[in-house]
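Q: what does this look like with iron/sulfur cluster bound?
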Amino acid sequence: MNNKFFANQLIKWYEYYHRDLPWRQTRNPYYIWLSEVILQQTRVAQGLPYYERFVNTYPTVFDLANAAEQEVIRLWQGLGYYSRARNLHQTAKYIAGELNGVFPPNYAGLLRLKGIGPYTAAAIASFAYDEPVAVVDGNVYRVLARVFGIDKDITGGEGQRQFSKLASELISREHPATYNQAIMEFGAVHCTPSAPDCLLCPLQQECLAYATGRIHLLPVKDKKTKVRERFFNYFVIVQNGRIAMRQRTAKDIWHKLYDFYLTETESNVQSIDEFSDNQFLTSIFSQTILTPPSRIFTYILSHQRIQAQFWMLEASPETVLNLPSDLTFFNEDEIENVPKPVLITSYWKEHFF
Ligand code: SF4
């Protein structure tokens, strides 16, 4: 198929069918960057309110740079992948402090920024500067694999190189921004993973997957994600109406977010006797009133499945507790304001509201 025909069909489709989204109304690289970072691994409907909150709270890169990290993570709360929020903040500081608030003017310069990979750099360079660099995200892989009948594994280096090369050949030199938006939007709403609308497809005549009945076999993904099962036991220590929390500092999920005293086990715990070798817990069990465990909360991340149970331990005002040094008592307002994993918020809403 002629490259120009492919690009023109997508652009024509896009002009008629695209969703009106706020980041499509701007050429400001800061707003485009915010939208791209927020939308990675997030559906548009979920990402949109976050985008609006970030733009309203931090209208310029200087505002984001000057914010406290905890505030940025709090605003990000619920989107997951918290390292992205931290990188966003650090990169905003770098752009504000070292580059006078001016984003690098091209793909190569953008790629040098922390947390900006080839996909985000291509999105900013094309949408903000009309530079003809192709974006290749999951939607683009799917459209290209199907239309061109490519059965190379999209998780392997060789496959990725082949798709990148093809994407670079296909991008419209006259309208790179619209073309990139068009192919991503086409994959997101028309050539979808499980229900592509082949009957009303402007590329149906040329689509090799359609012609050969391989729509649901493409794209090929060989690498299966290995999911790690984890079992969290949280102890919610309450005294004088305040609750002991700690900031997570280890290299693990939810870095810098706040949770309660935690001990991890190999499976769900049946009885608190299973904590008999934990000195802190055995001592605090004797000093407090222990409520029965909560229901099991299940929380799924991309590579982990967490099952969590919570026990509440109520200490009388006069009890002198010997807490681990990272635990501090917070009142309700303070707890509301610190960034917390969604798992903790779910428990909190169920038990304290
Ligand atoms: S014919 Fe079907 S599979 Fe092929 S591009 Fe169109 S919607 Fe996608």
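The radius of gyration is 25 Å. The chain has two domains: 3-217, 228-352.
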